[in-house]
Specification:
The protein is an all-alpha fold and 153 residues long. Helix content is 69%, strand content 0%.
């Protein structure tokens, strides 16, 4: 009996650790997207689980508040509701889809990772995203405090 040998060639620039990392990220993205398809916003509310520690501690929304429910809304096709919950959810949803398919994209387009990681946008886009989320979060906190009559500007 012959030994079984995998005949699928891996790209030369992949090592076992790299492959494991990318496949782990893809599995994590698949889990997040899968749960967002299975769960709905109503189910999340019915579970009685507080998803945001900052909100449960302060009763104020954090910059990421609403992302989980917005993912569920996007998966349900409720794009307007997702935007209301957290407009950044669309960027993170697209990032999850990209992570899901990244190992396949990297195999199909071997130079893609080098082109992406060597661009300035690869460094500055995440920093800009984090800064924009914090500004958004601070605006939501100020708006919440004004609505409650705690802050008057």
């Amino acid at each position: 009996m012959e030994d079984f040998e995998l005949k699928v060639p891996l790209a030369k620039h992949w090592d076992a650790g790299d492959l494991a990392l990318h496949c782990s990220l893809a599995l994590g993205a698949a889990a997040v997207l899968g749960l967002s398809v299975i769960l709905s916003e109503q189910v999340l509310r019915g579970m009685g689980v507080e998803l945001c520690r900052f909100y449960s501690w302060s009763s104020l929304p954090c910059p990421g508040c609403g992302l989980t429910r917005a993912f569920c809304a996007i998966s349900d096709g409720e794009f307007g509701r997702a935007w209301e919950l957290n407009p950044f959810s669309f960027l993170f949803y697209v990032a999850c889809v990209a992570l899901l398919f990244w190992p396949f994209l990297r195999l199909a387009f071997p130079g893609l990772q080098l082109r992406l990681t060597s661009s300035r946008a690869f460094v500055f886009a995440p920093l800009l995203l984090v800064a924009a989320m914090w500004v958004f979060g601070l605006c939501r906190i100020v708006t919440t405090l004004m609505d409650r009559g705690i802050l008057n500007l």
